[in-house]
C-alpha cells in the first residue's frame, strides 16, 4: 500500500498550507537580498553624506585635539570634550544609521512579507542533535550555499582587482596632497568603490531570489493524498457532514410537526402523502402549508392530527399536487385555490355540524385540479 512518502509532491501548495507555514515562521527568504539591500543603502548613504560626515569628523577631531591652557587645570574639561565629540558625531551619522535600520527591516518585507512566529523561537531537538547537524552539513542546501559563497568571493575579488588597477595611481598621488584634502578624496574613491562592489552583488541577488522562491514552493508542494486529507479537514469528513445534515433535517422536521396541531386540515393521499394547511382570516391571502411529508413523516403528521382533533380529508390528486409544488410556510399555488377552497368549506361545515350536533356533511369526492398539476397525480395509492 502506497504511503504519502511514496507519492510525488506534484500538487501546488494550498492557501491553508502556506498559511500554516507562515504561522510557523517558515516563509520565503533570501539572505543575499537582505545583505545586498543593506549594503546598497549603506553605500548610497555614504556616497550622499560621506563628505559631510568626513568634514564633521574633521571638525570634531580639531576641537578634541585642540587644548587650551585654561582647560588643563579643569577636571571636567575632558568629560565635556568627550560629550561634545559624541553629540557631534551622532548628529553626523544619525541619518546613516536611520537609513540602515529602515533597510534592515524593509529587505525581509520585500520578499515574503513581515512575519513573527513564537514557534520559530521554540527550541527544537532536531537542531540540537549532532547527527542532524552533520546531515545538514552535507545536504544539498549546504552545497548550494557553498557554491554561492565561492561565486560571490570570485566576483568580489575580480571587481576589487579591477578597482585597484584603476585607482592605484590615484592613491599613490594622495600622499602629495594636504591631509584634509587627501582624506576627502580618499573617502570619495573608497565610497565609489564600495558602491560598485555592492552593485556587483545585484547579479547574485538576481539569481538567488528566483531560486529561493522556487525552492520554497517546492518544499511546500503536496501529494495528492495530502490535498485530499486537507480538504476533508477543512470541509469536514463526508460521514460527519452527513450526520450534520441528518440532525438538521430532524430539527426541521421537529419544528414542522409542532405546527400540525394548529392546522385547519390535513389533506392525505390517504397513506403515502400528507399536507397540513392553515388559513387565517385577515392574515395571508391564501392558505399556508405548515407541514408536509411522505411515508413515515406522513404517518407522523396523521397521528398528531388525530391526537389533536385536526380534520383529515382524503384527496389524493390534491395531496400529491400540494406536496410536489409547495414548501413549508408557503402559500398554496393560485391554480389550486379552488380545490383547497372546497376542502376548507367542508372542514368549516363539519365544525358547525359538530358544534350544533347536526348531521355531518359528506366529504367532497369530486375535487378536481387544473391540468398542469395532473402530472403529479399519475401514481396514486
From TrEMBL:
It is found in: Cell membrane. One of its GO terms (biological process) is protein secretion. Residues 1-26 are annotated as: Disordered. Its main location: membrane. GO terms for cellular component: plasma membrane. SUPFAM superfamilies: EscU C-terminal domain-like. It is a multi-pass membrane protein. The chain crosses the membrane at residues 33-50, 89-114, 150-169, 189-214. Keywords: Bacterial flagellum biogenesis, Bacterial flagellum protein export, Cell membrane, Cell projection, Cilium, Flagellum, Membrane, Protein transport, Transmembrane, Transmembrane helix, Transport. InterPro entries: FlhB (IPR006136), T3SS_substrate_exporter (IPR006135), T3SS_substrate_exporter_C (IPR029025). NCBIfam families: flhB. PANTHER family: FLAGELLAR BIOSYNTHETIC PROTEIN FLHB. Belongs to the type III secretion exporter family. Required for formation of the rod structure in the basal body of the flagellar apparatus. Together with FliI and FliH, may constitute the export apparatus of flagellin. This is Flagellar biosynthetic protein FlhB. It comes from Cycloclasticus pugetii. The gene is flhB.
Amino acid at each position: 500500500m502506497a504511503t504519502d512518502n511514496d507519492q510525488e509532491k506534484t500538487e501546488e501548495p494550498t492557501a491553508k498550507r502556506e498559511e500554516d507555514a507562515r504561522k510557523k515562521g517558515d516563509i520565503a527568504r533570501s539572505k543575499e537580498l537582505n545583505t545586498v539591500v543593506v549594503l546598497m543603502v549603506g553605500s548610497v548613504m555614504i556616497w550622499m553624506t560621506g563628505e559631510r560626515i568626513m568634514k564633521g569628523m574633521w571638525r570634531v577631531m580639531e576641537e578634541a585635539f585642540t587644548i587650551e591652557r585654561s582647560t588643563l587645570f579643569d577636571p571636567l574639561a575632558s568629560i565635556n570634550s568627550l560629550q561634545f565629540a559624541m553629540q557631534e558625531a551622532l548628529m553626523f551619522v544619525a541619518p546613516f544609521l536611520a537609513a540602515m535600520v529602515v533597510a534592515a527591516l524593509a529587505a525581509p518585507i520585500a520578499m515574503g512579507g513581515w512575519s513573527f512566529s513564537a514557534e520559530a523561537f521554540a527550541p527544537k531537538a532536531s537542531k540540537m542533535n549532532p547527527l542532524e547537524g552533520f546531515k545538514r552539513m552535507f545536504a544539498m542546501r549546504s552545497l548550494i550555499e557553498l557554491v554561492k559563497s565561492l561565486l560571490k568571493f570570485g566576483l568580489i575579488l575580480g571587481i576589487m582587482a579591477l578597482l585597484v588597477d584603476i585607482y592605484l595611481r590615484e592613491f599613490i598621488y594622495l600622499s602629495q596632497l594636504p591631509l584634509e584634502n587627501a582624506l576627502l578624496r580618499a573617502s570619495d574613491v573608497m565610497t565609489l568603490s564600495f558602491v560598485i562592489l555592492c552593485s556587483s552583488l545585484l547579479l547574485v541577488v538576481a539569481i538567488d531570489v528566483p531560486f529561493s522562491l522556487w525552492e520554497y514552493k517546492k518544499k511546500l508542494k503536496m501529494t495528492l493524498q495530502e490535498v485530499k486529507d486537507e480538504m476533508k479537514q477543512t470541509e469536514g469528513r463526508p460521514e460527519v457532514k452527513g450526520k450534520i445534515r441528518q440532525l438538521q433535517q430532524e430539527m426541521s422536521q421537529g419544528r414542522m410537526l409542532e405546527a400540525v396541531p394548529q392546522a385547519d386540515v390535513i389533506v392525505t393521499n390517504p397513506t403515502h402523502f400528507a399536507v397540513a394547511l392553515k388559513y387565517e382570516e385577515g392574515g395571508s391571502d391564501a392558505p399556508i402549508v405548515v407541514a408536509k411529508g411522505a411515508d413515515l413523516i406522513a404517518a407522523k403528521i396523521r397521528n398528531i392530527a388525530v391526537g389533536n382533533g385536526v380534520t383529515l380529508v382524503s384527496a389524493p390528486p390534491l395531496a400529491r399536487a400540494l406536496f410536489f409544488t409547495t414548501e413549508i410556510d408557503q402559500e398554496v399555488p393560485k391554480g389550486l385555490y379552488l380545490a383547497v377552497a372546497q376542502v376548507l368549506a367542508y372542514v368549516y361545515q363539519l365544525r358547525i355540524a359538530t358544534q350544533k350536533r347536526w348531521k355531518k356533511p359528506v366529504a367532497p369526492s369530486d375535487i378536481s385540479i387544473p391540468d398542469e398539476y395532473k402530472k403529479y397525480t399519475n401514481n396514486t395509492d
